Protein 1
Amino acid sequence: MTGDEKRQQMDKPQPALPAAGEPVRFEQHIKPLFRPYDRQAMSFAFDLWSYDDVSQHAEAILGQLQAGTMPCAGAWPQEKIDVFSRWADAGKPALSTVPDWPVFLRGLAKDVTFG
Ligand code: HEM
């Protein structure tokens, strides 16, 4: 990638942030906060597009975001940090397509008959 291409990639418009009060989910809201460049730069430590990795390291990641030490080229605006912090406080939910997926899965399993 040339320098110009890399800069374009870094400056790609970010998806809309969740509205105030809207539940924050990893797939819809957290994952898109991380640019391909962030993901690639941090791949030596963890995968910023992986639910398991980001939830496991959420406290450390939030600490870096709040301190403004990551991403190294410039701190996130406060509203992006707030979205990450809301997600961590809400228990790091993964998806929103199914409102309560453990209940949903149990419901599905009930309908399955084996043999
Ligand atoms: C536990 C949290 C994190 C730790 C301990 C951490 C640590 C590091 C370290 C040691 C480097 C290499 C430093 C260097 O080459 O100068 C690095 C690079 C980088 N990290 Fe992180 N990081 C964390 C989270 C994040 C997050 C959340 C993002 C994005 C939002 C991010 C974006 C980057 C980028 C873009 C680079 C490359 C910097 C460059 O050379 O341009 N990191 N990180």
Protein 2
Amino acid sequence: MVRRPAASPVSPVLQRRPKDAGTWFLFVNVLIVVGLGIVMLPPVDAGCRPLVRKECEKICRTNGNCELRIVVIMPANTSVEASLPRVRPVLEKAEEHIRRRAIIPAKVAIRWISYDDRCEQARATVMAMDGTGSETCGHVILGPTCDFALAPVARIARYIYNDGIPVLTGAGYTFDFEEPKTFCENEFHMLIRTGLVSFKRMAYFMIDLIRQ
Ligand SMILES: *[C@@H]1O[C@H](CO)[C@@H](O)[C@H](O)[C@H]1NC(C)=O
């Protein structure tokens, strides 16, 4: 026979109250402090150049349509490893994955905006500007995948929009791309390299290998 605890005149929920009240008091206090902080502190400005935010920069427009615009800048020539025809299927897979795992809300459409920079510095720079102009208003740049084209795009990215625009690439092997990027003064402030290697790492690897 299962022994039941003696029925208490106070319900278990009410009995636990004194201890809970302390927790609640703390929780409410924290909320008040955070709330006051939000109201009274000036908003943090992450940008390197204060600009007026354009209406088109919003992911969700006032009419309720939401769209994430991803600017892809890389060569169309397949003799370059990371070229548009080779990368596009990977991006489609990535989108499938994002949808399946619901990483971004289902109501947000994804628009891919591709540009062929032919691995040229000047073309890549102009395409980054086209991709972030009032007509396109991209939210993030993928590429460029050639280091020479990547450099100018990653340099200007911190001055595009009020908050800069993130530049994500698997390239960026040369030494300068490995420098710190914490502050606006850092040349490649908005650059995010997803690749594992760089020339510097490879050089250290070779030196270590030869030493052994
Ligand atoms: C692609 O690049 C290769 C090597 O640089 C070049 O020989 C070829 O003409 C290019 N193809 C096109 C269509 O530009």
Protein 3
Amino acid sequence: MGIGYELVCVDCKRSLEMGKIYWRDESGTPLESTTLDGVFDRVNMRWHKRDDFFGRAIEAFLIQHRNHEIRFVPEGVDELIATGNEIVEPLEADEIIAAQKNVFPDPAQELKEWERNHREPK
Ligand SMILES: [Zn+2]
């Protein structure tokens, strides 16, 4: 029932599956607040949400893709984002966490990059 959502970096063509969004429980009663499955932990074969694993995966994804165009979209949009033979590659949450290194962001440089890449042509 229903389709899942994913966090996609449009610039890098990488995605993180976030599962389905829920607004009511199994008996049909509306939940207090809308929620989602979270991020999948393939090692322990379970979803994580609102916990440390979830936080670390989202944090690492955001830091690794800072200053990039990130979208939270239903499955299928990734196929629309794909260009030519460049598909959107799904990433595993544990890989994203493991890939998180100590980086030294330069916000001023990133601001310049953004201006350069998004300036209207004259
Ligand atoms: Zn990116």
